[in-house]
Design brief:
two-stranded antiparallel ribbon; 4 helices
């Protein structure tokens, strides 16, 4: 849980260091579960918008956690010795998102690399 809290507090906009697989996937799990809870609350209280797929609370959550998630995704790529620009591979239809997940799942680069 400390890893998740660090991503939201002290590493909120840290784009320059590295993030382990454990740190990334724990935060991703928290992110997904929290988003599903906020969507459920939006549906329950009637603030969800079917046209866009989420409501007021889940939208606020997405805005509040966008920068930490982006920073963590880039730091995870840095841990595999890749530049953060690799995030743009997700824009390629069909295979881009899958390839990005594969990159996030790769083993960390041994020892020091150009990102720390």
């Amino acid at each position: 849980m400390n890893l998740v809290l660090q991503c939201i507090t002290s590493k909120y906009a840290d784009f320059s260091t590295r993030a382990s697989r454990k740190e990334f996937w724990l935060f991703y799990l928290f992110y997904l579960l929290a988003f599903l809870i906020f969507i459920s609350i939006d549906v329950f209280i009637g603030t969800s918008q079917l046209e866009i797929g989420f409501g007021i609370l889940s939208g606020i959550f997405l805005l509040a956690t966008f920068v930490p998630f982006l920073a963590l995704a880039i730091r995870r790529l840095h841990d595999t010795n890749r530049s953060g620009w690799w995030l743009f591979v997700s824009l390629v239809p069909f295979v881009g998102g899958i390839w990005l997940i594969v990159l996030w799942c790769l083993k960390s680069a041994e020892g020091e690399n150009r990102f720390g």
